[in-house]
Write a structure and sequence with these properties.
about 450 residues; alpha+beta; Vanillyl-alcohol Oxidase, Chain A, domain 3; 2 domains; ten-stranded mixed β-sheet; about 35% helix
Length: about 450
């Protein structure tokens, strides 16, 4: 069988050359992209169909009065919540459209009134309530309406102004942020300084016609999320990282082995493959702390996390300083030797120079849609960087009453509960009562009875 390729004359018209290329092999490129669009379009369709079958609810959590639980209680909740993680197989992703379970942790200030809220799939309600009551027995949980439903508006808007952004990590997700364990002076034994105090105080500085929303959409990460940290640590300590072996690499190693076999042992030992010696013993104390911090973070359960901030207000009541104060509360978790949280310039409704009005309008509408959609909007690759349970507990927990005195946080006086099932009961017999006595007892009191 002979394969003949008829090459055109290179001196011919460029259009002829282009047509020849497309007619022979160029058609593969548009067909490939067309098939790719069909595949991902199908996946998007089955995912949306899967989502429509799920019922989402909002649970409002009243902060326990005189709460003395540190963020360690919230960390225990997140460790428990990781049980909602389910590994997805090929069939789940491409036929049933199943998606990972996401939970939205929200702190909302409506005119200065602060409420803690959790948005979740209804089937996980019992599990979430059990986790919260286990750590905060005096909390009160109530299902509420979605407070974002009333905001069916588009920008530009004549009545409201909008500010919003997503926050992201500055460095690799394997570097931790400053956590609640560092907000306690272990030397002077001072009481825990709650990191939530600054955020809640900033969120109370608004009035009617203004709202602040803080949202953390968390998705349980796979158990092997930490694996990439090894190469980060190897780079710091100067160790030779583990290399992936391929067919080409194996062939190259074989050739190298044969070449080295003809070199003297002395010369080979003096040039030991150019490996970088391990510098762990020569690291500064700061570098050693960085390595220890990375190892500590990756030893705990992780969640892909999307952080969103929104400030929306009537135009005559809009204050520029409000969103800066709320974002400033996140800067207390930043460390310049490890990691920090910063606004995502691609979503921030500000800092735009070219086509400013059009781009800010587009970003405002997109940010409002994403917030209202919570985890429903998320797609693979957009679940956010990984925060471990200790970091999440730092960012979201019930305020400790000794440190946070904000009066507008919704608190519960006592937990409403049913009588225990084992409460003893006894039967009693009603004695017959004389009819005269019954009439006397039921008679109305005299009119001249002193009051």
């Amino acid at each position: 069988m002979e394969i003949v390729i008829d090459f055109p004359n290179l001196n011919s018209n460029p259009l002829v050359l282009m047509w020849w290329f497309f007619r022979t092999i160029g058609w593969i490129i548009p067909v490939f992209f067309f098939v790719l669009v069909l595949i991902f379009g199908w996946q998007s369709y089955i995912r949306n169909h899967y989502r429509t079958k799920r019922k989402y609810i909002l649970l409002a959590i009243d902060v326990p009065k005189d709460n003395e639980q540190t963020p360690k209680a919230a960390e225990n909740i997140f460790n428990h919540l990781a049980g909602a993680h389910q590994p997805l197989e090929f069939h789940d992703k491409w036929w049933t459209g199943e998606i990972p379970n996401s939970f939205s942790l929200e702190i909302v200030s409506l005119g200065g009134y602060i409420q803690f809220i959790v948005h979740l799939v209804e089937e996980y309600r019992d599990m979430v309530e059990a986790m919260i009551y286990a750590q905060y027995p005096d909390a009160e949980i109530t299902e509420v309406e979605d407070y974002t439903k009333k905001w069916n508006i588009k920008f530009p808007n004549e009545e409201y102004k909008f500010w919003g952004t997503e926050l992201k990590l500055r460095a690799s997700e394997f570097y931790p942020i400053r956590t609640y364990t560092e907000f306690e002076d272990k030397v002077s034994k001072e009481a825990y300084k709650d990191s939530m105090a600054a955020m809640l105080e900033s969120m109370t500085r608004i009035g009617p016609g203004e709202e602040i929303w803080v949202q953390l959409v968390i998705t349980p990460a796979d158990n092997d999320w930490y694996e990439g940290s090894e190469s980060v640590i190897d780079k710091i300590i100067g160790a030779k990282g583990k290399e992936k072996h391929s067919l080409f690499k194996s062939a190259a190693d074989f050739v190298g082995y044969v070449a080295n076999s003809v070199i003297s042992t002395t010369e080979a030992s003096s040039n030991h493959g150019g490996e970088t010696p391990n510098q762990m013993l020569y690291l500064t104390p700061g570098k050693k702390d960085v390595v220890a911090a990375i190892e500590k973070k990756t030893s705990k359960v992780g969640y892909h996390t999307k952080i969103r901030l929104v400030y929306i207000a009537e135009k005559d009541k809009y204050k520029k300083r409000i969103p800066h104060g709320v974002y400033g509360a996140f800067k207390q978790f930043n460390t310049y030797d490890l990691n920090s949280i910063k606004p995502d310039s691609k979503t921030l409704t500000g800092g735009v120079v070219f086509f400013k009005k059009t781009r800010l309008t587009w970003r405002s509408n997109k940010m409002l849609y994403r917030y209202k959609s919570r985890g429903h909007w998320l797609e693979p690759g957009y679940y956010g960087k990984v925060f471990n349970t200790e970091e999440l507990a730092t960012l979201y927990h019930f305020p400790v009453s000794a440190s946070v005195k904000t009066p507008s946080v919704q608190r519960t006086e006592s937990k409403k509960s049913q009588p225990p099932i084992s409460l003893p009961t006894e039967e009693f017999r009603v004695e017959p009562v004389d009819q005269f006595e019954l009439n006397t007892a039921s008679a109305a009191p005299p009119e001249d009875l002193p009051t």
